[in-house]
Amino acid sequence: MEAILLVGGRGTRLRPLTISTPKPLLPTAGVSFLSHQLARAHEAGVERIVFATSYRAEMFEAAFGTKAHGLELVYVSEDQPLGTGGAIRNAARALTCDPDDPVLILNGDILSGHDVRAQVALHEETSAAVTLHLTRVDDPSRFGCVPTDDSGRVTAFLEKTSHPVTDQINAGCYVFRRSTIDTIPEDEVVSVERETFPTLISSGARVMGHVESEYWLDVGTPEAFVRGSCDLVLGRLASPAMPGEPGERLVLPGAAVAPGAIVRGGTTVGRGATVEAGSTVVGSVLLDDAFVAEGATVRDSVLSRGARVGPGAVLDGVILGDGAVVGPGNELRGGLRIWPGIELPPTAVRFSTDA
Ligand code: GDD
Ligand code: MG
């Protein structure tokens, strides 16, 4: 089976992490986020993937080349972002399958443990035009809300509505009949969620929902990105791309964790990163060359490449950009983001290591 992977978004909600690296390439549990998706797609029977790229397009081929995780990889870039539907149509130029064959379409920011083979089987059994993976969430207003009838047929598609009619949402993994992709207008900006799906449904095409509530996460926000990385390290979602066994922490080669430092909750410690004695790092992502000084506490946070946390500082739910420095004794909480290279001076009451 062939697949199209949508990876052209700007990842705005994940800034400053996505200033230099597109969201799908962010290091997640020790490897690029996409490695987990690619490895799982291969397990599900996909053999060839067309990347639909736009933002920082050249970085994808540089990262994965033409073969990775047992897959043949092809890249199709948009000069201007064409939206999700336009991107699918544009990337379909590189498909080799027949008009009636199923094509898997994947949003490039999803961790999912659902059974792709069962989704494809439903698609084939019902001769559907499109079959969507649907899951249930607490707040459907942030997603595509997708009601179905008793037979599992999709009756409407309401993208990010403030009045959701069900907690069932679009999980960002579709099986399209190849010929249905060809009905999307060419070389135009098209949203598959706001245009293609509603049009197909109202024109009477068979659109099916495969409802499954296995592990599922869209890593598009900082909180979700940290959680996804930690869940992979903890083994809550099995990934063939994980560089190590599941456990409380993943310490990559070349990292230094001092005896007496507490590192747990699915934390990743990147290459060349240092965690000094007497510090605590819980449920966090430390990228390469990050540094946590003695007596510091880091929780639910991301330290980008070369970011530094001074002695006794406290970070809770914070994103540090590349090379950002938090001086000794600072306490940062609740969604704060520090841009690359910014240095916060020590607090007035300086943490002292000599006392
Ligand atoms: N090539 C290309 N071109 N890719 C794009 C473009 C584009 O113009 N715009 C977005 N993408 C890619 C993004 O990179 C991402 O992988 C995917 O399309 C979805 O975009 P997001 O920006 O992550 O959308 P969302 O999370 O707000 O909503 C989507 O996903 C939800 C599930 O996580 C929608 O499909 C919702 O209906 C769905 O519930
Ligand atoms: Mg998303």
UniProtKB/TrEMBL annotation:
Full protein name: Mannose-1-phosphate guanylyltransferase
Entry GO MF terms: mannose-1-phosphate guanylyltransferase (GTP) activity
Record keywords: Nucleotidyltransferase, Transferase
Family of the protein in this entry: Belongs to the transferase hexapeptide repeat family.
UniProt KW Transferase keyword: yes
Domain Mannose-1-phosphate guanyltransferase C-terminal: 248-328
Pfam families reported for this sequence: GMPPB_C, NTP_transferase
Domain Nucleotidyl transferase: 3-231
Keyword flag Ribonucleoprotein: no
